[in-house]
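User: Can you predict the 3D structure for this chain?
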Amino acid sequence: MSRIGRKPVAMPKGVEVKVDGSHIAIKGPKGQMEYTFPSDMTITMENEVVSVHRPSDDRNHRALHGMTRALINNMVVGVSTGFKKVLEIEGVGYRAEMSGKNLMIYVGFSHPIVVEPPQGISFIVDTKTRQITVSGCDKQSVGQVSADIRKVRPPEPYKGKGIHYLGEKIRRKAGKTGKV
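Assistant: Here is the predicted structure, written as structure tokens:
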């Protein structure tokens, strides 16, 4: 049996949930999200707790059971506290700044890279530490936007210059050896 799927999802204060069959809408202080899950899963709301049930022990139903519960939990966490990812810029002359809501990244190209935030995503730039914080209520969107920013200039293995996640370990290579 799915251990994740059997866990109930408790609602923190300030979070409202509406369950309509397989469609669920969650509203909280950080925003609102809604999603339609596969109709095989039964979603119930009792006493500020959401639980997910499956019709059988079929392999596909077991997989959907855990995934449905995890997605609902991510939605609840997103609208109550939110998600964030921190990226670091490393390299001489590499920097980022805000231009209105857009993010301007200067990483050695002849032009700045402009990143427009999708709906529900916001950027915070710390120019002293050269860090970009991507935050929002949708975990998938925050991760995808962070990956797209990192893809602009991934860290190179010789000097480590580029954009990387905070705490990411960059595999370094030895450079050429000089003549003696």
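The first strand starts at residue 9 and ends at 10. The chain has three helices and 13 strands.
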